[in-house]
Design brief:
Blueprint: E1 10-15, H1 22-27, E2 32-35, H2 41-50, E3 56-61, E4 68-81, E5 105-120, H3 121-125, E6 144-147, H4 149-158
Parallel strand pairs: 1-3
Antiparallel strand pairs: 1-6, 2-5, 3-4, 4-5
The structure holds a DNA duplex (12 and 12 nucleotides).
DNA sequence: GCCAACGTTGGC
DNA sequence: GCCAACGTTGGC
């Protein structure tokens, strides 16, 4: 019997390009960075429990002139405790997070490639196949979101990437 | 800058 | 456990 095939899943991470952009990721050592500072329980649960090495990641630029999915990345390391929470000098410090029982988690993300054509929020909204996309739901603020396989392929295609 | 939506906090 | 007040997110 063949070994169970690990299912690759897909995610979307929001970032404000003024703070950390997709280009910043591509310029980072090994194109990799710790996705730290997430302080929302729902997002924390995804980082800690769900995201696995090798999963696909869209990088989305928020709070900018043209909010858009701008690039593709991959989970380079599954969830581990966010050390900023223990660092009193960090802006992400949380005195309630105990190193023995960490409250906040992060993953590592490695940049893969920019979308030849970034897919704007407006374009996502006018694409019928993406109607159910998490990002487009009213009032949604989650900075870490699951993306379905169909959404993944559709957005990649809109962005000008071949294959999946 | 405005404001809707949502999460968190804290008094009771 | 309820819920008002407050803070944050993020599009416009």
């Amino acid at each position: 019997m063949p070994a169970a095939k690990k299912t690759r899943r897909f995610w979307l991470l929001k970032t404000e390009p003024g703070t950390f952009s997709f280009d910043d990721l591509m310029r980072a050592p090994k194109k990799t960075t710790g996705w730290d500072g997430v302080r929302n329980y729902q997002a924390r649960n995804l980082l800690r429990d769900e995201m696995q090495e090798g999963d696909g990641v869209f990088i989305y630029h928020s709070s900018t002139d043209v909010p858009a999915v701008v690039g593709v990345a991959v989970v380079a390391r599954a969830g581990y405790p966010d050390p900023n929470a223990f660092d009193r000098k960090s802006p992400y410090h949380d005195p309630k997070s105990d190193p023995d029982k960490p409250k906040w988690f992060q993953i590592d993300v490695r940049g893969v490639e920019a979308l030849p054509r970034p897919v704007s929020l407006a374009q996502l909204r006018e694409t019928p196949a993406l109607e159910g996309m998490n990002l487009l739901r009213k009032g949604n603020r989650l900075s870490v979101q699951p993306v379905t396989g169909a959404e993944w392929r559709k957005v990649r295609a809109l962005g000008g990437l071949k294959g999946d």
